[in-house]
Amino acid sequence: MLPGFRNRLLIALGTVAAAAIIVLLTGGGAQSMLVAMSGGIAAVLVVAIGEYGDTLVPAPVEPVGAPSPSLDDMLEAIAEPLLVVADGRVSHSNAAARELLGGHIVGEDVRLAIRHPGAAERLASPNNGVPQAPVELVGIGTLDQRWQMRVAQASGGQSIVHLIDQTGSYAAEQMRVDFVANASHELRTPLASILGYIETLGDEQAGADRAVRNRFLKIMFDEARRMQRLVQDLISLSRIEAEKYRLPDHPVDLAGLVTEVRDELQDAQHVRTNEISLDLDPNILPVVGDRAQLSQVLHNLIGNAMKYGAAGTPVSVSLRQDGNNMIRLSVTDEGDGIAPEHIPRLTERFYRVDAGRSRAAGGTGLGLAIVKHVVERHRGRLDIASIVGQGTTVSILLPAEGRAVTKR
Predict the structure, then answer these.
(1) Which of 165, 229, 216 is nearest to 362 (CA)?
(2) Phi then psi for 190, rounded to 5 degrees?
(3) Which of 19, 174, 197, 306 has its C-alpha lying 20 to 30 A from 286's C-alpha?
(4) In the 3-class helix/strand/coil scheme, how is the chain assigned residue by residue?
């Protein structure tokens, strides 16, 4: 339509121009010619707009919208395993689900894809639109992994199966339960001993024997001190954990602190304090730390070396500048050593390689757990190396003063 209209418009404008020229030649003058031309052009445009106005005005251009994401795109954006089930079979899955259950699951019966009795029972029973509690699954992926399965109904009779990894939460809860149980046991044992001896001393015959009474009182005193140490360590551990995100900001002369701790142990007249050997770099840089907590670390490390090192052998404490502006403190004993399978668990609360020996030596089972938490608060590192029959070296690396420490 537009090409024909354009030709007719040109003819009309030509006619108007010819008429204007005729007016000029017949003596109408330039003014009459301009009036005739303007009127003619106006008339042509009015007629044209009236007839072809809709054609001349371009239609508004519809904006081109972004394409909607596909179902697969949306599933892949979710980090946890997700399945879409239709007619009992997996119609869609994301990468997390395929990594956990296998790349073959699409198109497979969902009960075979997940392969768990609890999951199969839930997936086989319709929920009739009623929300159901999640199902706890154990053994999918690895034997120690724990998952929570949630099933929701979607349109068209489809189901959405969502698997949530609960392994970390379960481990944290189990640690809490174990901690409470172990702490209760550690407190109950000396308390039962104290109550038993008090009851025995209440007997006139036992109480009248001075030697028996003194022996019982010493045992009671030792058990009470054991409880006191345990309570103090529990309080210390709780305080350190509460401060774990607050960086210490005071310079500490670690060489001077090592000497101070050695002197405190000598004043306590420990039988092995004369076997402590110091090898301290005099030019060592200060560390940025909490002096009281670092003192507790030194007491625990040196105390452990004296407890478990062979009598008559040195307890060596060295302090050196390490690479990258770090300070390395190492405490070495010459004892029985620790088997490799125990080393990863030594910093767990109440974990003992030899429970009987540890209790006999007065250990609470919290010393290395406290050391680990203090070192973590100082943004340092704890290393334990041991050779069975030769001894153990525990090293901590701490940032030197002036080194930038990144908050975690």
Answers:
(1) 229
(2) -70, -30
(3) 306
(4) CHHHHHHHHHHHHHHHHHHHHHHHHHHHHHHHHHHHHHHHHHHHHHHHHHHHHHHHCCCCCCCCCCCCCCHHHHHHCCCCCEEEEECCEEEEECHHHHHHHCCCCCCCEHHHHHCCHHHHHHHHCCCCCCCCCCEEEECCCCCCCEEEEEEEECHHHCEEEEEEECHHHHHHHHHHHHHHHHHHHHHHHHHHHHHHHHHHHCCHHHHHCHHHHHHHHHHHHHHHHHHHHHHHHHHHHHHHHHCCCCCCCEEECHHHHHHHHHHHHHHCCCCCHHHEEEEECCCCCCEEECHHHHHHHHHHHHHHHHHHECCCCCEEEEEEEECCCEEEEEEEECECCCCHHHHHHCCCCCCCCCHHHHHHCCCCCCHHHHHHHHHHHCCCEEEEEEECCCEEEEEEEEEECCCCCCCC
Is the whole model's pTM more than 0.90, yes or no?
no
- The residue behind tokens 């350190």 is 240
Handedness of CA 265, 269, 272, 276 (dihedral sign): positive
Amino acid at 124: A
Torsional sign, CA 289, 292, 296, 298: positive
**Per-residue pLDDT reduced to its tens digit, 215-226:** 888 888 888 888
pLDDT digits (tens, 9 = 90+) for 30-54: 555 554 555 555 555 545 555 555 5
What Cα–Cα distance (Å) separates residue 327 from each residue in 5, 242, 249, 305, 378? 91, 25, 16, 20, 12
Q: Tell me the CA distances in angstroms from 228 to 187, 221, 353, 355, 360, one per residue in order.
A: 9, 10, 23, 19, 15
